[in-house]
Write a structure and sequence with these properties.
Layout: H1 2-24, H2 29-35, E1 39-46, H3 49-53, H4 57-62, H5 68-77, E2 81-89, E3 95-98, H6 100-103, E4 108-112, E5 118-120, E6 122-127, E7 132-136, E8 146-147, E9 158-163, E10 171-183, E11 194-198, E12 210-212, E13 217-225, E14 236-240, H7 241-254, E15 260-261, E16 264-268, H8 271-276, E17 285-290, H9 295-299, E18 306-310, E19 313-314, H10 320-326, E20 333-340, E21 343-350, E22 352-353, E23 378-382, H11 385-391, E24 397-402, H12 407-410, E25 418-422, E26 425-426, H13 430-439, E27 445-452, E28 455-462
Parallel strand pairs: 8-13
Antiparallel strand pairs: 1-2, 1-4, 2-3, 3-7, 4-5, 6-7, 9-10, 9-12, 10-11, 11-14, 12-13, 13-14, 15-22, 16-17, 17-18, 18-19, 18-20, 20-21, 23-24, 24-25, 25-26, 25-27, 27-28
Subcellular location: Periplasm
Keywords: Hydrolase, Periplasm, Protease, Repeat, Serine protease, Signal, Stress response
GO molecular function: serine-type endopeptidase activity
Length: 465
Amino acid sequence: MVKRCTQYLLVICLLVSGAASARGLPELTELIKENSPAVVKINTVDRNRSNRSNSQPQFQQEIPDIFRHLIEPRRRQQRPVASMGSGFIISDDGYIVTNNHVVDGADQVTVTLTDRREYQAEVIGKDVRSDLALLKIEAEDLSAVRWGNSEDLQVGEWVVAIGSPFGLDYSASAGIVSAMGRSIPNESRENYVPFIQTDVAINPGNSGGPLFNLDGEVVGINSQIYTRSGGSIGLSFAIPASLAQDVIAQLRDKGRVDRGWLGVGIRNVDRDMAKAMGLGKPSGALIEQVSPGSPAAQAGIIPGDIIMRFNGQNIGVHGDLPHVVGQIRPGTEASVELMRKGKPERLGVTVGALPGSGEERGQASAYPSSAIGGRLGVVVEEIPEVMKQRWSLETGVLVTQVIPGKPGAKAGLRSGDIIAQLGFEEVGDMSDYKTVVKDLPEDELLPIRFFRAGQSTFRTIRIES
């Protein structure tokens, strides 16, 4: 009798366990089978990267001229650098989406389909700020993905990634959405992507691959991982499909991306600031500085204001503001709800165009280099008094924008740095800066001194002809 009861109990437990499993673990085989043909493997070749990586200014300076002839031949003999990533087909006539960092600087881009067909791809357009690129191959009747609405995603929802981690073709992994709207600044300290965080196993080679919901729709593009080992530790980040679709549409139509711009420096609101401003809890974006002549300045926004809502969207933390503003088309009239001296205010602002937005077809800049960033490829302004007092500075100019690929970026400058010396000339203010930059010689290594968080740093910079 006891044995029979035990058997019944075991059967019941198995049935309950099976029911729980059916409720909690989705069936993914059909989803993966249906969508794998639209996922591609991308291989790139950069014939110049090895030479660039071995011709850094510091490296050259440390080698006496008499010994350089021993090094040069080795540099010329180095092989081209190859890299790999993933992508996915968005139309049956051969348009493909991937990450910008997968194809950036590549001389040759090869796309491999699931049936092993290979095509040379044309780079239609790239966008550094969203880390997206649009490719085109000459093929027809291809399998294409379906876009989903990433704004409907919820934390805890199941998602699936398909890609080529470590070059292993068409590998699938699954997990859940861990968080939404993650702010992760890029190398230029810009923050225009509200990333989807997941615990899906993403590794090198997955970059540019699709993230699917359980309806088989692309809700994100896998872009980054947080790791200390180089492999997955359960923190991966994807670009939301809602943002990606807008970027891709602009790249397809005009080869560049135009973004909204306010022209403010911001920080988070802490508990003490929230209390002082009459807020129930820390929220919003505190304005630390306003660029002269910017859309924010023209709208009457001043340092000390706390933006609570922009164009009808809540600003929970300061990182939300560039996400919202960046997706608004330049020239759009937007409403700003803010706290000023403890009282609510409502203003109207005409959103401007972010300087240096996007790249033209054929990888050319969308704006003349002389108009955006000048010879150094950096946008500067006078140092606000609050920064002078904080870091005990009297001279210099503040870097507010660094254009990728330009001399300033190659020298390691970032937004927020304060340039104090160029070449052998001191930079006291904007007038000095313009005069010094105008007279800098080309194709020579020059010293540059700047302050970062109050610490003086020396680097070298080269103005290319």
